[in-house]
Design goal:
alpha/beta; 5 helices; globular; seven-stranded mixed beta sheet
Length: about 290
Amino acid sequence: MSDKWAPAARVPPGSLRITMIRCATVLLSYEGHHLLTDPWFGMHMRGLPVRRRPGRTPSQLPPLTAVLVSHLHPDHFEPAALAELSPPPEFVVLPPGAKRALAGVLRLPGRIGSLLPLPGGRQGLPPVNCRPARHPVEPQKIELCPWSEIQVGPFTVTAIPARHTGPPPDEINFVVELPGWGRLLFGGDARLDTALLGEVRRRFGPVRLALLPVGGTQICGVRTVMDPADAETATLLLEAERVIPLHEGGLWWSLPPLSRHPGRNSDLKARFARRGCPERVVVLGEGDEVEL
């Protein structure tokens, strides 16, 4: 594989290409624009060796419209990886409080956009034309509060609350709307919250695709991440047509009884096979792609 980005086969109009990098790092490509979620490319996790390499390196990624960061845990946000992106992304979307937490670490000049009222009582940023710049500029860093939205390129990105674990800032997840395609939900490594997902369903309607964690992380016996049963429940609550499992257990060693990561992608597939619809689960290995 080349160490530089080269255009892959053209994504058909109206199709979304999903490329699995690793863990919760996913490349979303639509109508010539690209989003990257939770950038992490390292080979250690809090001192533990990581067993699988990412399916792409930062230099093998296309020019990015935006990077969406759910939270600042090291397996979801790697500041050094942002510095390797060339050209830099136009936007880095962060949870509230991230800039303060990253003071002196995230050395990417930019500005925070002021939240403006939108119709229906929502908040967000005014639409932004995100065509690739002739001379790349440093990304704008935007802290997006839950239930606020921004428009970048063809994507309408809404932050939604998420339940995970500390330290702060708190995790957010994202609902991304693509005109002419539908909505997807990116679940970071949140734990199951049925009331919250019910509210997401009420506000947005069914989603076409859910990207949900399945690792089932337990820290000192406390569940902090969805497991396959939780992801099945979330998929049904969201009425998602397809689900792609993220954050599979086994990427790095468990340290029982301190930490366990038992959930596997195949477990979620098996659950929907028992329901008679295994095709509803799309399992992607590192570097795999699918178009929907």
